[in-house]
Amino acid sequence: MDKQNTQMNASHPETNLPVGYPPQYPPTAFQGPPGYNGYPGPQVGYPPPPTGHSGPGPAGFPVPNQPMYNQPVYNQPGGAAGIPWMPAPPPPLNCPPGLEYLSQIDQVLIHQQIELLEVLTGFETNNKYEIKNSFGQRVYFAAEDTDCCTRNCCGPSRPFTLRIIDNMGQEVITLERPLRCSSCCCPCCLQEIEIQAPPGVPVGYVIQTWHPCLPKFTIQNEKREDVLKISGPCVVCSCCGDVDFEIKSLDEQCVVGKISKHWTGILREAFTDADNFGIQFPLDLDVKMKAVMIGACFLIDFMFFESTGSQEQKSGVW
Q1: Where along the chain is composition biased (Polar residues) (predicted)?
Q2: pLDDT tens-digit profile of 118-154?
């Protein structure tokens, strides 16, 4: 036996393993770039890989010499564990970093998380949202960044900063809502939100358009040029059904998409302000405008659905 152990250790002089330990790959096998071609296979005389082994790395994951943007992250801080993130496609030309996810989808789902402290005490907390694709994969995670005094004194009309991060934990979109007038009788200082991607670089704006009965908004690009219109119903009340805000062309003759507030059940609607939304837009729409649509959805949520069922807005304007 001693002779056998001596031979084993002698054949692997770089491992420095105690007598009786099984052999491992030598450190020289883990050479990095340049010319790195992935992890090597088992060496001669070593035990074969277990049954079902699919090669270097877990099944379904790319080999180590592939780009990192193809690797999904499963347990990002702030999100629910076990829900896979959408793997990022190659970024299109002139695409702001982090928006490449939007180039491959024509629908996103936004689910607001229920805050237990808010339900039990009525104390307004920072909102948190999961943004998913139609397959249930998480695309982004959004979190409000507003101080306690502003949240509880200004309520749904509060100014806020909403930070949206991707699967690598990088902030890719920032939403800035300033404090504006909340009266339908005043046609000035109406609601608006600025969308930045990356943070600090505006890519578009959502501006409320004054109307005595209907909630109307204008989508603008980074140059503040009108691009699209949004029109909602006269009575914004999610009573046992969805509420649709149509995305239209500038002449409002063609519907190109919609923002829908989904009915989530009588208990959730009555006792929480955690809402679910769906956004549909053309697949070939500019990714910047898709990001602006997400910003429009958050503005609509705060304007009409941020309160619980007993306090929810019952008209299209404040």
Answers
A1: 1-14
A2: 667 777 788 999 999 999 999 999 999 998 888 888 8
